[in-house]
Amino acid sequence: MSEYKYPINDILFSLQSVAQIERLNPYLDDAVDEDLLEAILSEAGKLAEQVIAPINASGDKEGSRVEQGEVIEAKGFKAAFQAYAEGGWIGLSGDPEYGGQGLPSYVATAVNEGVQAANLAFSLCPLLSLGAIEAISQHANDALKNRYLPKMLAGEWAGTMNLTEPSAGSDLAAIACKAIPDGDVFRIKGQKIYITWGDHQMSDNIIHLVLARLPGAPEGVKGISLFIVPKFLLNEQGAPAERNDVHVVSVEHKLGINASPTCVMSFGDQDGAIGYLVGKENDGIKAMFTMMNNARQGVGLQGLAISERAYQQALAYAIERKQGMNASRTGRAAIIEHPDVLRMLMMMKSQIDAMRSLIYVAAVENDLSHFATGEVQKQAITRTALFTPIVKGWITEQAQEVTSLAIQVHGGMGFIEETGVAQHARDARILPIYEGTNGIQAIDLIGRKLHSDKGEGILSLLADIETELALWKGSEMAPYAEKVNAVLEKAKEATQACLDAMQKDSVLGTGLAYPYMMLMGYLVGAWLQMRALYSVKENIRLDDMQKASWQHSVYFYCDHVLPRAFGYAHEIMFGKTTVDNLNKNAFNR
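-> structure tokens emitted (589 positions)
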């Protein structure tokens, strides 16, 4: 089993040359200079490699358990979490007013890539905390912010999201959890399921964000409110004291991420768990989407991270493992000399490069949506909304292929748990499911993002891609720019077909949503790969070998990965037949 190596050079290149982080400089009082960024990421790499990665395999084997109503996490996790908290990593992009460092979110994204690749199960705890912090920051009153944010940003208290119920999976309109007013507080009663890191001993308190209904609330999502429900109530000094009426019932036995306790949580078995309203009554859906959008980009990052981890292990094995004869028949060959293994490794690498570019471009757009002004901010808000379902959906789909290929490179040894590579595929399998399945991401893209503004945002993105591709006409990049442009033209046609379908029948039109999301993912990935190739040629920090590596990656992506987009475009253009065949009676036997 190979050790994880934080890919700092690839991350810096993606941030500086592809995501173009200097775009933020006019809007920041103190821009993050190159030396500071490299220093931060270097230390983050050490944390990931030396503290968090070593407990990944052992945590997978041990898992978590419930003892006397408390979740006990795997050995080493508490010490790792304390090291993570003491390093100030969770507060990197937090509000300085509450103890955060106020750095752009792209810095935290780059740090979290290493944490997630090192140990996906561990990384889910800070991921959920960040989502809770974001929701409290944007929607809670000042009293709640002052009470909870400093400790959460310091990593002393963790956070969770409590949305799903036994009878309400992704259909939040069916939520039945109750919130009963009791003076200045509310009594929360109900059960939540699939609560990631719903209980543990790694922090002094756990701040649950819970969706519930007030008496007389409207039906559906318009009647949902959001509440802070701490594991321990606070005393007058603001310290955890009395245990709240919230308990873990059990932890699920899962395919992967075994060290991350996925909990069934019970609120209000006795007098009702005390909760505090976040935002306005019946307005919890807005705060929920703040958490969800934060988490959705975070899950996309997990897809990149676990792919990188699997690729590193496959590459190390391919270099080390000898099987068969070399081309000159003079000795045994490392399997990396075999063309089919090279194909699989390049399939992995080229997609990871595209995934990473998209992750950091989306992160910078998110920062611009907060820091910029005027038209720049307006466009960044739109782009962030567009990129979010693609980041979550397309990247996590690619992670399934990459982690599967990592097993294939290992051959029979990949199917043996002791090798360690199977864990990455098991861990990755949850990514297209949670925080909204990828089908939901696709519907979000074709519905809320495409249909709602009649395609204005998507068409603007496509126009920008076309403009940038035109810059490379007449250059040595032209043949590959033309390949991307051919897909772009198909994407324009597909976009109009989707708009027509949604206008005609928005329910049936969503039958085109998944191929449209995948088409856009492959196209955006190719566009950013071309930008990377152009930047590589001008980058004085990269040596000839590094430049050649990027060139091979981009060429392979355009020749072997991008053509998949034509299949999705074809599926959309002949979508009427596809949609008509989406009939439950087709499955009768």
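The mean pLDDT is 94.
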